[in-house]
Design goal:
16 helices, 326 residues, 3 domains, five-stranded parallel beta sheet, two-stranded antiparallel ribbon, alpha/beta
Length: 326
């Protein structure tokens, strides 16, 4: 994290694009905001866009704006986020979720500092710094031809990688105290002490949701506390090892996070045939992931295969292998 802070300070006053890499919940938006505040653009706007939250057409309009009549429902002209961020910074979160069409337009903005609104022929020029973030390895997507290589190198002038919380457990006590103070003040409480058993449980948990998950649990504990101490009974069962990690978190996590979760849950359900630890871990992780993606996609295999980035036949084979077919 000291290296993250050092890079943040060094890159802030430059004009370079910055690529933030790390799992969800590691604080990429906070670093983007810090870069903006420490830059010469601090008096300009800081505009956030979650590229994974919108469809291609909506995201294109959100980023570049549109003119009246550009599409059904476009009853007025609209200024896009790039224009709104003129003289400031735009933070493009989950850049990995953008489509090839949008990647072309983003590349042009980065190279030429210009674009056209949806449905318009007039060119708009902007002076906007771009900070992008991804919870996926973009270079892997480039190799799979799912992300443009030229855009990758334009974004990746300076990259900052944020480590997951499980790899910096020494930061947990300081973070806990910070969130205790924050939420005690917000909720007019006075929770300032931590029970040793609670501290140990927080240190031992693998934190698939990273700092965001820790923040959530500390806020919960402060709200439920009856005294001035965070006690072990205020922590959720999943932190105490009494409940398996939520499937939603597993479905959105990377292989390392999933593997940690599986190892901590134990391998009691492994079949006798799986005679290697590695195979058992991979099988448990893969089955969990497939099951949750199918639930999220309402058991539509075409949709699930697209979400997983695999062939439908491959998905069908895997579902049959793990007895997940309806």
């Amino acid at each position: 994290m000291q290296e993250v802070y050092r890079l943040t300070r060094r890159v802030a006053r430059s004009k370079a694009s910055v690529l933030l890499l790390g799992e969800s919940g590691t604080g990429k938006e906070l670093i983007a905001s810090a870069i903006h505040r420490l830059s010469d653009r601090t008096d300009g706007p800081f505009v956030r866009v979650n590229c994974g939250a919108l469809s291609e057409s909506l995201l294109e309009s959100e980023l570049f704006g549109h003119v009246r009549g550009a599409f059904t429902g476009a009853i007025n002209n609209r200024t896009g986020r790039f224009e709104a961020a003129h003289s400031g910074t735009i933070f493009l979160d989950e850049i990995n979720s953008t489509t090839p069409h949008l990647q072309v337009k983003l590349l042009r903005v980065l190279q030429e500092r210009e674009f056209e609104r949806v449905g318009d022929t007039n060119t708009v020029r902007v002076d906007t710094r771009v900070i992008a973030a991804s919870n996926r390895e973009l270079l892997d997507l480039v190799h799979d031809e799912r992300f443009r290589e030229d855009l990758y190198w334009r974004l990746n002038v300076v990259s900052i990688r944020l480590p997951p919380l499980r790899n910096r457990r020494e930061d947990i006590p300081a973070l806990v105290h910070h969130f205790l103070n924050l939420y005690s003040e917000a909720n007019e409480r006075y929770v300032v002490h931590i029970q040793p058993a609670a501290r140990e449980a927080l240190q031992d948990y693998h934190w698939p949701g990273n700092v965001r998950e820790l923040q959530n649990y500390i806020e919960r504990a402060v709200v439920l506390a009856e005294g001035d101490e965070l006690t072990v009974d205020l922590l959720p069962d999943v932190v105490l090892g009494k409940e398996r990690p939520q499937a939603a978190r597993l479905a959105g996590a990377d292989l390392e996070t999933l593997t940690c979760a599986v190892v901590e849950q134990g391998l009691s359900n492994s079949t006798p045939e799986e005679d290697s630890l590695h195979a058992r871990i991979v099988n448990r992780v893969e089955r969990e992931l497939l099951a949750q993606v199918m639930i999220a996609c309402n058991n539509v295999q075409i949709k699930a295969a697209k979400k997983l980035g695999i062939n439908r036949n491959t998905l069908h084979k895997k579902l049959k292998e793990y007895n997940l077919e309806n």
